[in-house]
Amino acid sequence: MTKKAKKASIGKIQLRDDGIYLIKTNKTKTRIADPILVTAFATSDPGTPREQAFTVIKFMNRRSKWKKEIVSSSMLITHCTEFTTLLSKRGYVWPSNRDLRAKIIVALSVEKPNRDIRVTDVPGWHGKSFVLPGEAYTPDGPDRNAIQINYNSTVKLGAFRRSGTLDQWKKHVAKTCAHSSRARLAVAAVFAAPNLRPLKVNTFGFNFSGPTSGGKTLLLRLAASGAGLNSDEGPETWDGSAPGFEQRALGHRDCMMPLDDLSHLAGDATHVAQLAKLVTFRLSSNRPKTKAGQYVQAHNLVDTDWRVIPLSTSEDPLWDQVSLHGHGKRRVRGEEVRMINVRACISNVGDIFDGRKASEHVGKTLDERLRFVEKQEVLAVQYQGEAYRAYLTKRTADKTAIATLDKYIAEYIEAASLPEQFRWLGRIRKYFAVVYASAALAIDYRILPWDKKSTLKAIAACMTDAMEQLTENTGGAPDASTKEIKSNAVLLAEFKQRVDDATFVRLSQNRTNSRLVAKRLKKANGIIRPTSWGKAQCLLFSKTLDGWFPAMTERKHLTKMLRSRRIIGKGRRPDTSTRQVFIAEAGKKVPCFALSRKRLAVASPPAIAAA
User: Fold this and answer.
1) In the 8-state DSSP scheme, what is residue 547?
2) Distance (Å, rounded) from C-alpha 581 to C-alpha 478?
3) Strand partners, 66
């Protein structure tokens, strides 16, 4: 640098609203740059080991428009070049003199503003406040200053746009959902996502499957319009890598997360299957993959948890595409109860509009319905974001929200019966219950213009469809919920008849003709074996009873009744009625019921019914 340039930079920097001035020793003042002001100090994760200091900068760009940037305070001391580059990219014009630039940054670093705020890299719940870009929702109402989101390149922050008004969204978008049970589920999921964390529910999602042009993507657009996640290009897709999906989850923390069209995943069928499964488990783990602490710090990674509700679409049911085990009956895999498949196109004309009056409002012909879908896609972009923010405003101020949600969850569970008593179906029902409860709360807040009765019915219809698909694929009975358990008298009579017709192989103490006996045992329903006290014991094979009464609920009811009447004996454990019996002729232990045919013969239906 020349002596002239060094001399030009001698003096004191003054930061003012109308510009940055250099005050020289002779008291002359020269404007050297457009204004940059420090408006607040900020802190992230206060009181934790991850606490960091930030500085809130306000500056005027080359178009004379004020811009704001939240930067790490260390950037003003040790990373000055990064700071000047950052503001330059945002349109700020720095002085060409390097010494002047350095003096300006030093002046900014020693500023002491009066205001303190909190910053975060991710949206969602922070204490009792819910943060979105541009605004936080607190128990005292919306606040644009208390907590703000700091840009982090490792977080793919959702757009959370705002356009139109709440009334326009209710009229042009939400009311359309009344003609589609799947649309109600998708939009209700938007309002359910902020409730997962307070209700201690893990991440789960829905995949809407069906043929092309049936309206699947519209479901995501309708949901995204509630949260403000729509763009002209359409919802975000499955295109990405596993780390990229983690960044999306952080950027949609405690919110709905769109994942349109599974076919966007690149690679062959095996690669797509593995990645889809990996993403599902990564999302449901509620936090990024564990990395070394020094790596996290060196790359400025965000190490926090999330709760999201991903909404996905695919032409084929999601588990069909992620299955690596062929076809036929099989056990349910973990990803199937975390990303629940719901068939989207279930109306008479093969689209998403299955409402009772859909033909009147949506259209009767295929062309009319396609035009309606196109119109709704435009409206979903035009009116978006305000519903979610209005909901959060009331939700954060509602001290009784959790109690109300628990009440609606119980209401749904009571109304929506399970098709079969499997543990994994109970978890799925809880997820649908949370979605219904959140929709009911949004109805109470006058955000959703629906009624609760039809909403419960619509969400329950989606749940039934999802469960039927699972039970069909796993060999369960999808219509078991519609079958009433038979009366005690009927069960007893049927059991008596079965036992009378059954084949019992009598075993001898000297085990003669063991080969012949072993052959007969393969077709037998049980055995009669001698005991040490000179009597005979009748044992009914457990697999025989399974075959006679395949419905698990009915079978459990029967065995409980028979045991209470001492028709079958105690099992090897207090919680079971079977015992492992070694049959030498079979060469193995076989689970059996100890059956008293004498008590069965004299048991009367009225006595059993009263038990």
Assistant:
1) H
2) 34
3) 60
Identity of the amino acid at 531: T
CB neighbour class for 286 (10 Å; exposed up to 12, middle 13-18, buried from 19): middle
Alpha-carbon torsion angle 240, 242, 243, 246, nearest 10: 90
In angstroms, the CA 277 to CA 318 distance is 10
- pLDDT, tens digit, for every residue of 491-544? 888 898 889 888 999 888 776 677 788 888 888 999 998 887 778 899 999 888
In angstroms, the CA 171 to CA 179 distance is: 13
| CATH annotation of 166-397 | 3.40.50
Contacts of 229 (CB under 8 A, 6+ apart): 158, 159, 160, 161, 235, 236, 252, 256, 258, 384
The pTM (predicted TM-score) of the whole model is 0.71
Q: What angle do CA 426, 428, 429 make, to 5 degrees?
A: 65
Q: Please identify which residue in the block is written with the tokens 């973990």.
A: 334
Q: At what angle do helices 80-89 and 98-109 cross, to 10 degrees?
A: 100
Any idea where the domains of the chain sit in the sequence?
Answer: 3-119, 122-149, 166-397, 488-610
pLDDT in tens, 269-284: 667 777 777 888 888 8
Beta strands (DSSP E) in 162-275 are 205-209, 256-259
